[in-house]
Design a protein that fits this description.
two-stranded antiparallel sheet; Hypothetical protein af1432; six-stranded mixed β-sheet; elongated; Rossmann fold; alpha/beta; 2 domains
Length: 388
Amino acid sequence: MTGTFTSAFNFILATYIYLQIVFECNTGVNMRTIYLIRHGKPDFPGGGKMCLGLTDLPLGSLGRLQGALLGAFFAERSLTEAFSSRLSRARETASLTGLPVTVLDGLEELYAGRWDGLSFEEIRKRWPETFALRRQTPSLPPPGGESGEHGCDRFSAAFELAVAQSRGDIAVFAHASVSQLLLCKIRNMPLGLARETPLPYGCYTRLILEDGIYRAEDVGVSPRPPLDENVCLRLLAALDTPPNLLSHSRAVAKEALRITRALAAAGMDLDADQIFAAAMLHDISRRDDHHAAAGAALLENLGYPGVAGIIRQHHDPEDPETIDGAGVVFLADKLCLGGTIVPLDTRFAASLGGCITVEARSAHGRRYAAAAGIAEKINAICGKDIVK
């Protein structure tokens, strides 16, 4: 009897193990995902774009923020390792994700020969015929540059090496042209069509590897995670926000959220998530002249137009007569002295001393009047003094 039970148990156990194996195979447990990533936007000298191959440029502010968003995206996924081109723009993007990074030779961008590192305006002037011809035939290499065929072979070999010496799901941080060539190879497309696959700065392409065969999914996707507190802190850290400014941003976000909740209790529903994100990030470009416009431009480029619109108005609301997200963040900013929430009069008295010119004093008075007017309207809506 015992032997029969043992045999039955072993049969059931063997069947269970077999079904588990079948289930895992059918559900793709043994598949791998490789994220192919284009680096964030580089810091182009003078802001103008150039022919960028092996010329080594660091990331600009937007590129660092794109790297931070990739980091937020990958924080929700179980990646084991990252590989990167040796060029700074790729390495910096990879480092901003928080993944362990291995630099691998062969993942670099196509070498652009005599054009490498030159502005397109200079190239057009010095090589007008070749420049015009290349616009018609993008696969034509620049003078002395690397061919698409050679670049594809070189990059593919390095890419396969990264896959072979790793386990699980990984990320490969590289460049536009070589990634486009690899995608052509995977899709069995002519290499001359590589540029027809747009890969914006800071995007990822998900490659599924199964039984030695790749298939491309989610090609050229720019991650746009919700701007919760953790993501906002990633963005602020990417631009090396100093502690005092971080404290101020958190205080403004806390006050903006308090006002928003008070308005909601009184029957006025505003987008609390959008207001919180804009308050956290309103000074993200504080080091820049006209930092409200500069910060708004960054968030617009990252794909958050609603947050950008509020940041743009955090110094001067476009319509101070209307209680909206921009008005709430504007007021919350004016209720914070550094990282401390203070009465409106205290905040403006403290800032008046820095207004030396007539224009500065005029702007100070205009903003004080706007803030006081918004506070009065909010208190009236709530039926009590929410703001003092």
